[in-house]
From TrEMBL:
Source lineage: Eukaryota, Sar, Alveolata, Apicomplexa, Conoidasida
Region described as Disordered: spans on this chain: 1-97
Biased composition (Low complexity): 1-40, 47-57, 64-79, 88-97
UniProt source species: Eimeria mitis
Protein name per UniProt: Uncharacterized protein
Length: 153
């Protein structure tokens, strides 16, 4: 009797957690749909505003490696978006991230992941800001090497 009771309580607890996760999913879906509507209305300008705020959060918060792997997958999908209908594919991506976010079960991390998605969309449309940083570093290194040659001579 005790074993069956324990199994019943465990099943009830599992069902309760599933219901909570489903409720969170619905809330996330509503928030994401609102974001899409705003993006469609304001187009590129609204996305740029969101992305600037999101970059600051990424600089201040060190995020786990799992999120970085998700960023790489998102970049590949965003390249496809440039050639196709963007809004439809964005919805598919958000659904995928909802599944990933359920496993973490932390709304703060979920918001950071959504912000990363939006930030990378603009980077690829504007020509990757990351590439600009690389070019700056290369130019600085070239200056240091060229200045060090005369001093050595």
């Amino acid at each position: 009797m005790a074993a069956t009771a324990a199994a019943a309580t465990a099943a009830a607890a599992a069902a309760a957690t599933q219901q909570k996760q489903e409720q969170r999913q619905q809330q996330q879906q509503h928030q994401q749909q609102q974001q899409h509507q705003q993006q469609q209305q304001h187009h590129h300008q609204h996305q740029q505003q969101q992305q600037q705020q999101q970059q600051q959060q990424q600089h201040h918060h060190h995020q786990p490696q799992q999120q970085q792997q998700q960023q790489q997958q998102q970049q590949q999908q965003h390249q496809q978006q440039e050639h196709h209908h963007q809004h439809q594919q964005q919805q598919q991506q958000q659904q995928q991230h909802q599944q990933e976010q359920q496993q973490q079960q932390q709304q703060q991390q979920q918001q950071q992941q959504q912000q990363q998605q939006q930030q990378q969309q603009q980077q690829q449309r504007t020509g990757c800001t990351g590439v600009v940083y690389v070019e700056v570093l290369l130019s600085v290194s070239n200056q240091t090497t060229s200045s060090s040659k005369p001093s050595s001579i």
